[in-house]
Amino acid sequence: MKLSEIPCTNCQGHGLEVHALSEALCRFCGTANTVGGVICPRCDFVSPAGAEACANCRQALHRRCPNCAALNWVGGEQCGNCGHALDAFTHLSSRRGVDPANFLNELARDSHAIKAREAADSDVRMGQLEAIEQRRQAFLADARRRRDAQQRVLGIGLAVLVLLAGAVVVVMVIISLSAN
After folding, report:
1. Degrees (nearest 5) of the Cα angle 161, 163, 166?
2. Is this prediction's pTM over 0.90?
């Protein structure tokens, strides 16, 4: 549904304009209205909450902050988490006045932080994979134990049958010899 088609909660006028992620201002009375979804800044279409792209024009509805990597509404100008400019060019130009050595140190710190985060995530994933492998190995060992136990029972049963068959043959031979 287009934002302009949603009536204002105060004056019932159809004149809502984009204000923030889930808010729209009425151009007639100025009331802030909460919209049940994410407003596309390109076409003013209201997509369901949590949507990644506009259902009308396929515009991305979220943007990552270049400073803290927090997820923000694409129509916003500043990060809701750290307050930095969401536009990458503005973010980089704000660093221009900085001493180049400090800028390189900041880039190195950012790179180190990203690598540390990736290493921590990798460790978590490896731990999960190791836990899965341990469960798989335990399942296989349990299956081998059950199979070995079944084979022992079958072997013992077969040995008992062979002994019984041998005993029956011996008894039959004794009976036939004593009958002659």
Report:
1. 110
2. no
